[in-house]
Design goal:
The chain has 13 helices and 15 strands. With 383 residues, it is an alpha/beta fold. The radius of gyration is 22 Å and the shape is elongated.
């Protein structure tokens, strides 16, 4: 039996590779002679660089850049070099991520994506022809303005002065000057990977939906939404498109808007980008079962998350799918259209620290029990 194990990470406890290993360990207790193909995955957000650099033998790059608020951070990105072309894998979370600051430091009015722009500059200095950027986990709500500023773009107020960094300053934007934008931006293929379809502004936009988790009050949300709307209106003079309602432009605090002023960007679902890069369709050939999972599964999993993405590919090939999650939300019924069974791993009411500490044991045990159930079911069907 060929079993493809293709999970995402369990955030704060297990990497995607660790999750795959735990599932294999549990299943191999019951099916020791099966062929196991482990494919750790990510959906374009945090962990994407780790997944791809390990699978493709890339090289990690380190650079001290400006963090989302004030302090500098050590941002890690990856360089893939096949001898003919170079590709950069960058996560906005590495330089401008929410996890880089404490809850008390969160301030979407001032948070900037400037450090991510510095990482992009480093990639350009190394001669990349292609850049893949994942937009999950940002602390920012600046419409990618910081990225644009780091690349040489100038955002000017009515007096011709450069705006300070951060999302709130965009309310005073009068003009955009790309005269000093790094010329290399025009010659790079740029793919934006995101797992949300939210527009830039409005009730489902970057500020309203994601602003509160970044520290925005109701008053801040209104201010930031108006600032992004104003940014989009001014940017239209350059891009000839008003991106306020463009699908996916609400990701990472509206980062695609700033990126669209510097590059000819393509927006792709993060999980599809990862699956294609790893040639997962080929790995699925001849598979009898696919096992996926992530830390938390509920109806949000349908919005481009890893288990749903791999399940869609498997279902097209008639391959059954089992999902194992750290925990299950209250709304999972819609997932059954593509996943035959869904299991949670938490064994009893536990504190969060205990759940995180026992994640590997709980996952391995659950995988073993799932496998045992399959084995018993097979015996019963033979009677």
């Amino acid at each position: 039996m060929k079993i493809v194990i293709a999970p995402d990470s369990f955030k704060e406890s297990l990497s995607a590779a660790d999750v795959a290993t735990c599932i294999e360990n549990g299943f191999s207790e019951i099916f020791p002679d099966s062929e196991y193909i482990k494919v750790p995955l990510a959906d374009g957000g945090e962990g994407t660089v780790d997944v791809l650099v390990d699978a493709l033998n890339g090289q990690r790059q380190n650079q001290i850049v400006r963090g989302p608020i004030k302090d500098d951070v050590n941002a890690v990105w990856a360089l893939l070099d096949d001898g003919e072309s170079k590709t950069a894998l960058i996560e906005i979370a590495a330089a401008s991520g929410l996890d880089l600051i404490t809850p008390e430091q969160r301030d979407p009015l001032l948070a900037t994506s400037f450090g991510t722009g510095q990482s992009i500059l480093q990639a350009l200095d190394l001669g990349v022809q292609k850049i893949l950027i994942g937009l999950g986990g940002s602390a920012t709500n600046d419409g990618g303005a910081g990225i644009l500023q780091a690349l040489g773009g100038q955002l000017l107020d009515a007096q011709g002065n450069e705006l300070p960094l951060g999302g709130a300053a965009l309310a005073n934007l009068a003009s955009i000057d790309l005269t000093h934008l790094d010329k290399r931006c025009a010659n790079v293929e740029f793919i934006v990977a995101c797992d949300v379809s939210n527009p830039l502004t409005g009730e489902n936009g970057a500020s309203a939906i994601f602003g509160p988790q970044k520290g925005a009050t109701a008053e801040m949300v209104e201010l930031l939404d108006n600032a992004l709307s104003h940014f989009a209106n001014i940017a239209e003079k350059t891009t000839h498109i008003n991106h306020q309602q463009s699908v996916g432009f609400g990701a990472a605090g509206g980062a695609p808007l700033g990126l669209s002023l510097a590059f000819n960007i393509q927006i792709k679902a993060g999980i599809d980008m990862v699956l294609d890069i790893l040639n997962v369709d080929q790995l699925l050939q001849g598979a009898d079962l696919v096992i996926s999972g992530e830390g938390m599964m509920d109806n949000q999993t349908l919005n481009g998350k890893t288990p749903f993405g791999i399940a869609q590919r498997a279902v097209k090939r008639g391959i059954p799918v089992i999902a194992i999650a750290g925990s299950l939300g209250t709304e999972v019924d819609a997932l059954y259209d593509s996943m035959g069974s869904i299991f949670g791993t938490v064994r009893s009411p536990q504190s969060l620290p205990q759940v995180l500490n026992e994640a590997d044991k709980n996952l391995t045990r659950t995988a073993r029990n799932v496998a045992a159930t399959l084995a018993m079911g097979n015996k019963l069907s033979l009677k």
